[in-house]
Each structure stands twice: as structure tokens, then as C-alpha cells.
Amino acid sequence: MSFRGCIVRSDPRQEEIGRVLKSVALNSVRKVLPDRAVDTACQAADYEYRQRLLVPVVVVLHMVMAALSPEGSFAASWSSLWCRLVGALPGAAGRSPDSGALSKARRRLPLKVFERVFEWLSKQFQAQAGVTDMWRGLRQVLVDGTHVSMPATPELFAAFDRGHGKHGSFRYPIARVVTLALAESMGVVAYKMGGYLTSEKSLLRDILGRLSPGDLLIGDRGFAGAKLYVEYLRAGLQFVTRAHQCLKLGRLPRMKSFSEGDFVTELKVNPAYIRQDPSLPKKLPVRVI
């Protein structure tokens, strides 16, 4: 493929290796993530590339397979792929790109390409999500946060900061990530990454709009609180969370009781939040189970 009228002479041997690589070694992933999805992502990102062995389709599909590979490294997963290729095309023996070429090929791809590929995949599996992700007509969506570490480069430290523990600052940068995933199929609906000092609640607010009205959001106590509950309801969502660690359940008024451990109460919204946003209600009815 060439963009904007760019014509590049290609090596027929490389074209043959690339064709067999995709059709044999990478074909299992291509059934889920077809070439057209990656090519469309490149066009949307305005990314031009030359025809070579490590085209975006090969690089992206290899990254997916490497993430699923038990070997745990890009190099090991590539070696496994190349062995399968040689089985179908013996002439490719000894012609595998080295790890440096693989690394350069990954770095050439803009982040926007991967973002567009994720969006395409997310739409596909959400459209195919079955009844297992539903409960009483509500789509169940889990929210959770985690941390990921990265190589200790000045650029990554500047973008994400470093983590801090009881023994001081870590020697590598840490990113905070929040994901929204379907409860049964575990397909990721949306994600947001930020610096270590960015709160999970702040990251969640940035992706709440990716959910559909009527979704049932399920989270731990890190995503609890009266102000957050108001935001969930304003987004048209239902919600179930663990009780916030600061909430004194025994002191809550019982507006209506269904059993000893099941009642409706009112949570007070912190006055400080109301001063920042006068549209917030002073109290919010919730059910405690």
C-alpha cells in the first residue's frame, strides 16, 4: 500500500515472505483483527509508510500475539512466528529481521494508529456482546484501575512521573490506568492512562461518556462517593459499588427498610463540592445492601 501517490520499488522476495507471514503465522489474529482495520487506522492517523516486510499490519498483529504469548517477550514471540513461517516457506530461513529492526518498526507507528485499532476492535466486540454481559436488561460494565511501569527514560519520567513507596521514589516511571470492561466477556470498552499523580476518579470521568445510558457500572470503593454517584446518574448510568471506607453505615438514616442489611438511605454531598458546583444536590438517595 502507498499513500498520497508515493510509489516505492519493492523486493519480490520480501513481498512473498510478507504474504506467507500474514497468511500462515499471523492468520489466527487476522481473523479477529483484519488487515483493513489496521490500514484504515493508518489512513486516519495520516501515517505514510513504505512497502517492506515489517509493514503496520505485521507490526500490530505481532504486538497482539506477543501480548498473548507465554514466552513474555517480543523477541521470543517473533522467533516463534518466524519458525512457523519457515515451515511453510523454507527459503525464509536465516532472513528474519533482528530485534533492533522490530523495535524501530514499532517506534515508527504513531500512537494514534494503536488508538484507532483499539476503537475498531472495541466497537466490534461491543456489537457482538451477548446476553452473558446483561443482567435484568442492563449491560454490566466493570471499572477498575491499575499501574504500569515503563523504561526509565527522561521523556517517560516527564510524562508520567515516578512512583513513590515506603522506601522512597521508584527508579522507573509509573502510569496510572483506568479501564471499563464488560463483566463477562471482559472486552475493554474504554481506557484512560495518566500520570502517577492523577487520580483514578479523574481518569474515569474522562471516559464515562463512552458508556451507554442504562449501563450498570460496577466498581470497588475507590469509585464510591456521593459526588461520583451524582455524576454516574447524570450520565444515565446505574451503579453498584462497595461502600466508601469513610462511610459510617450505622449512622445512616433509614428511609425504607427491606431487611436488616438492605435499606434505602440518603447520602450527603460534601458542601465543598457544592460550592464548586452549585448544581449538585445536597443529598442523594441510594440503596445499601
Task: Explain what the structure shows.
This protein has 289 residues and is of the alpha+beta class. It has a domain at 12-116. Helices cover 39% and strands 23% of the residues. The strands form 2 sheets. Strands 1, 2, 3, 4, 5, 6 and 7 form a 7-stranded mixed sheet that branches. Strands 8-9-10 form a 3-stranded antiparallel sheet. The protein is elongated and about 75 Å long. Mean pLDDT is 88; it is low at 1-9.
Key traits:
289 residues; three-stranded antiparallel beta sheet; elongated; disordered N terminus
**Separation of termini?**
58 Å
Largest sheet: 7 strands, mixed
Unreliable parts: 1-9
Oligomer: single chain
- Tell me how many strands there are: 10
Instruction: State the share of residues found in helices, binned by percent.
Output: 25-40%
Can you give the mean pLDDT?
88
Q: What would you call the shape?
A: elongated
H-E order: HHHHHHHEEHEEEHEHEEEHE
DSSP strand content: 15-25%
Rg, please?
24 Å
Number of helices: 11
Structural class: alpha+beta
Topology at a glance:
Elements: H1 12-25, H2 27-30, H3 35-44, H4 56-68, H5 74-88, H6 99-108, H7 111-128, E1 134-135, E2 138-149, H8 154-160, E3 162-165, E4 168-182, E5 188-195, H9 200-207, E6 216-219, H10 226-234, E7 238-241, E8 256-259, E9 262-268, H11 271-276, E10 283-288
Parallel strand pairs: 2-6, 6-7
Antiparallel strand pairs: 1-2, 2-4, 3-4, 4-5, 8-9, 9-10
Helix pairs in contact: 1-5, 3-7, 4-5
